[in-house]
Amino acid sequence: MFTLEIDGTAVAVINGDEETARDLFTCDGFKSDIRELTSAGKPLWNGTSELKVRPATEDEIEMFEDALAEDDGSGDFEPVEAHADSEEDEDEADIVFLVDIDEEDEEDEDGQKLDA
């Protein structure tokens, strides 16, 4: 397993080999996602910091495994075309974020933010 580290913070873990980790963590679609996703109100990536891919620590692997064990498959995952690839589904790797991701505000049909 490999970890994506940004500015000294472990951001995500992937259960693939190093080549797969580098490919996914540095693809344009993933970089776009981590610029838009926020944690504590700040983007995960500022668009300029180095995206460091390194072997995952034992603690990070444990967090990854715990997250997958808790996943009941009922999340709101939506495939993104930017991530579409010709590879088969069986070749896909799982990615778990190690930081708390802020929830997006809900919007109505016209794209207006709804009060929670």
From TrEMBL:
Top-level taxon: Bacteria
Region (Disordered): 70-93
Acidic residues bias locations: 70-79
Protein name according to UniProt: Glutamine amidotransferase
Organism per entry: Methylobacterium gregans
Organism ancestry: Bacteria, Pseudomonadati, Pseudomonadota, Alphaproteobacteria, Hyphomicrobiales
